[in-house]
Amino acid sequence: MNRLRLRPLTQDERTELERWIRSGETAWYQRARTILLASDEEASGEHSARVLGLHANTTRRWMHAFNAGGVQALAPKPKGGRAKQFGEDVAEAVIALLHEPPEVHGRATDRWTLQDVATVLVQEGKVEQISIETVRRLLKGRNRSWQRAKEWINSPDPRYAVKKSGATGCLLG
Questions:
Q1: Which residues of 94-121 are buried (b: 16+ CB within 10 A; e: fewer)?
Q2: How far is residue 139's CA from residue 128's CA, in Å, rounded to a whole number?
Q3: Span 131-156, mean pLDDT?
Q4: Counted domains in the chain
Q5: Which domain holds residue 145?
Q6: SS3 of 106, please?
Q7: HEC letters along 91-146
Q8: Over pLDDT 90: what percentage of the chain?
């Protein structure tokens, strides 16, 4: 059987791979650990795969890439698709909005809807435009649900706040 041999690492390559291990990024760690295992222990792709819990073809592919192009060839490639348009600040704004009564923002309702949230975000200048599906995705990404939003009930009773708070004492009177 023809076993894949890893070429010797330069000191700069070793330093870079050790930095990748400390980066906290799984993809970078796995690639760096694979190459360092193969280099230090003269381990095969199969051995590295068993140690790291990866498929042997994956570790062999990384070893071939390293032999051909060095550390730069191991760097994870950018994912395709459209870049995120809304960041954490918009998600936080949506959650903060759901914690306030809709009347505060000019809505004539006691309960938020996704359409109301999207409309208020645009009206208040938080975003130029946003769909209700994007609002739903932002909430889902934060393990929140617009359906669990607090319903804001108001009463004409002057003692409503005391009754709602559950304060004890004589309420008659």
A1: beebbeebbeebebeeeebbbebbbbbb
A2: 19
A3: 78
A4: 2
A5: 88-149
A6: coil
A7: HHHHHHHHCCCHHHHCCCCCCCCHHHHHHHHHHCCCCCCCCHHHHHHHHHHCCCCH
A8: 30
User: Amino acid identity of 85?
Assistant: Q
In angstroms, rounded to a whole number, what is the distance separating the alpha carbons of residues 122 and 49?
50
Instruction: Give me 22's structure tokens.
Output: 């400390």
State mean pLDDT over 57-85: 86
> Which token pair is 136?
């739903």
Place of tokens 């319903």: 151
Compute the average pLDDT of residues 134-151.
78
- Residue 33: count of CB within 10 angstroms of its CB: 19
**1 — pLDDT class (breaks 50, 70, 90):** very low
Secondary structure (3-state) at 127? coil
What is the C-alpha separation between 115 and 126, in angstroms, rounded?
15
Determine the residue type at 42.
E
Residue 119 is assigned to a structural domain of this protein: yes
Quick one: 97 and 133 in the same domain? Answer: yes
Residues 6+ apart with CB under 8 A from 52: 30, 33, 34, 37, 59
